[in-house]
Write a structure and sequence with these properties.
The chain has 362 residues and is α+β, with helices and mostly antiparallel strands. It is built from eight helices and 18 strands. A hairpin with a 2-residue loop joins strand 14 and strand 15.
Length: 362
C-alpha cells in the first residue's frame, strides 16, 4: 500500500525547492532538505516530486535528451560503499575510478546547445548563457562558445569558491552558497553581468584517482579523501565511484533512475558552526600551517576541537580572526576543515609576524 508523506513536510520540500531554484535563500539547510527527500523516497519512491529533485524549474525552451541523463544511486557511509564495491567487483584486481561529485547544475553541451539535465529525459535549453560559461577540461579553460569538437560534453555548471566570494561583492548580494548562486544566475531573466563567469566542468576529464577492489579499506579511503580535499576548487557534496571498465559497467545495466556500474558517496550532515578560540602555526617543510583551535563541536557523532585552515593565504582570503564564527565540514565523515567564516563580536589578528621555530621575521 502506498504511504503518503506528511503534507507539512511535503510543503516544506516544495517551498524550499522553489526558493532555491529562483535564486532566493532556502529556509532549511541542505542537509535537512536531503533528509526529507530520503524520507519521501522510502515512503513513496514514485512520488512526482522526486523527479524534480536536482533539476531547474523549467522557465525556457525545453530540450529533449536523445540519451537519458540518469542520476546516481547514493550511499552515505563507508560500510555501504564497501558493500557495493564487493558486489560489483569480479576479482580483487577490479579497478574503480573516483571523481568529484560537483554541487552545481548538471547539464550537457551538444552541437552548440547547452541544456540542463532536467528530469533526465527533458531539460531546459540555456544556450543564452553560453557567452558567460567556460568549459573546463583537464588543465585548460576555454569559452564554451569556442568549443568546436563534435561529441557531447557531459558535466556540471559550477562556480569556484574564490569566484563566488568575488561575485557576491560585485552583485552586492549575499548568496548562501555557490550552488545557490549558479541557480540564481542561470534562472535570471536578464543577461549575466559581464564580470560574471561560470564554469562547465566536464566529468570525464576532472581529477581522478583509481584503486583496486582488493586494496580498498578504511585507510585507502582516507587517503583518497585527503587527495580530493587538497584538490577541491569547486563546491562538492560527495565523490563518484565507478567501474574503470566501461564495457563491464554498461553490461550491468540501468534502473529507471541510475546506472548500476557507478555510485555516489554523499557527504551528509557534515557541517556545523563554532567559534575560533586560537590558531597554532604548525611548522613543516619550510612552511607554517595554521591549525584552528575551536570551541568543541560534534559532527557525525565525533567531537572536533581542532581543524586545518590550509595555509596563510586561506586565512587572509577569508579574513579570519580569532573570535570569528567558522563553518566546519567533516568531508566524507573523516577530514574536518573550514568551509567559511563570519566576523565575531571581538576579533583578534591571528597571523604571526615571527616564526615560532627560528624566531626570524616571516
Amino acid at each position: 500500500m502506498e504511504v503518503a508523506m506528511n503534507p507539512k513536510k511535503l510543503a516544506i520540500l516544495e517551498r524550499n525547492f522553489e526558493l532555491y531554484w529562483s535564486g532566493r535563500e532556502p529556509e532549511i539547510s541542505d542537509q535537512r532538505f536531503d533528509q526529507l527527500v530520503e524520507e519521501l523516497r522510502k515512503e513513496n519512491p514514485d512520488h512526482p516530486f522526486l523527479k524534480k529533485v536536482g533539476i531547474a524549474v523549467q522557465r525556457g525552451t525545453k530540450y529533449v535528451h536523445k540519451k537519458a541523463m540518469l542520476s546516481l544511486d547514493k550511499v552515505y557511509e563507508f560500510k555501504d560503499l564497501e558493500k557495493w564495491i564487493k558486489n560489483v567487483a569480479r576479482t580483487p584486481d577490479e579497478q574503480f575510478d573516483v571523481q568529484f561529485k560537483f554541487d552545481g547544475l548538471a547539464g550537457k553541451y551538444s552541437h552548440g546547445v547547452l541544456a540542463t539535465r532536467g528530469d533526465g529525459q527533458i531539460g531546459e535549453d540555456i544556450s543564452r548563457r553560453k557567452a558567460n560559461i567556460y568549459l573546463v577540461q583537464d588543465i585548460y579553460t576555454i569559452p564554451l562558445i569556442e568549443y568546436s569538437r563534435g561529441e557531447d560534453v557531459i558535466g556540471e555548471i559550477v562556480v569556484s569558491y574564490k569566484k563566488f566570494e568575488k561575485y557576491k561583492k560585485i552583485l552586492e548580494r549575499d548568496f548562501s552558497n555557490p550552488r545557490n548562486f549558479v541557480a540564481g544566475m542561470i534562472n535570471r531573466k536578464e543577461a549575466l553581468p559581464f564580470d560574471i563567469k561560470l564554469d562547465f566542468v566536464e566529468y570525464k576529464s576532472s581529477f581522478t584517482r583509481t584503486f583496486k577492489a582488493g586494496e580498498f579499506d578504511v585507510r585507502r579511503w582516507y587517503q583518497i579523501l585527503q587527495e580530493f580535499d587538497a584538490k577541491k576548487v569547486y563546491p562538492t557534496d560527495g565523490l563518484v565511484i565507478k567501474l574503470h571498465d566501461t564495457e563491464y559497467a554498461d553490461s550491468l545495466g540501468y534502473t529507471e533512475h541510475h546506472p548500476k556500474g557507478s555510485i555516489a558517496f554523499k557527504f551528509y550532515g557534515t557541517t556545523a558552526w563554532t567559534t575560533l578560540l586560537d590558531v597554532i602555526w604548525s611548522p613543516g617543510k619550510g612552511s607554517l600551517t595554521p591549525v584552528a583551535i575551536i570551541k568543541p563541536v560534534v559532527i557525525g557523532d565525533v567531537k572536533i576541537s581542532k581543524v586545518t585552515m590550509h595555509n596563510a593565504k586561506f586565512v587572509m582570503d577569508k579574513d579570519i580572526h580569532i573570535g570569528d564564527e567558522l563553518e566546519i565540514e567533516r568531508a566524507g565523515e573523516v577530514i574536518p576543515h573550514v568551509v567559511s567564516a563570519r566576523p565575531g563580536n571581538e576579533r583578534k589578528h591571528c597571523i604571526p609576524a615571527w616564526c615560532p621555530v627560528c624566531h626570524e621575521k616571516l
